[in-house]
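Predict the 3D structure for this chain.
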Amino acid sequence: LICVTAVESSYAEARRRNLFSLGFPLDEVLATGSSGASPKAATINALSPAAFVDDYLPYHDGVAESVHRALILRAPIGSPNTGPGLQQIDSTHVDLQAFADWWLSRGF
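Done. Predicted structure below.
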């Protein structure tokens, strides 16, 4: 499991410790910074993972179609997760655990 996070590199270790303390079995944390419309897309495309999971719809922009794009839903009022970009999403889930359960149930 690799975390690609839109924080500056100086915060990558803090992000890793935080996620590790929550039980995420991370192999690596990659900090992309936060500039650009989708600061994670180039890193995701270079990694070419089976799936990209994020709770922010704009970060899915530019992710290759060969990568399964899963959106974790947010509260509907004031959410950035609306509009035509939703058509590019392969699956939606209420939380990361729901995605993991769904993914594993399909034998991926």
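Residues 3 and 29 are 5 Å apart (CA to CA).
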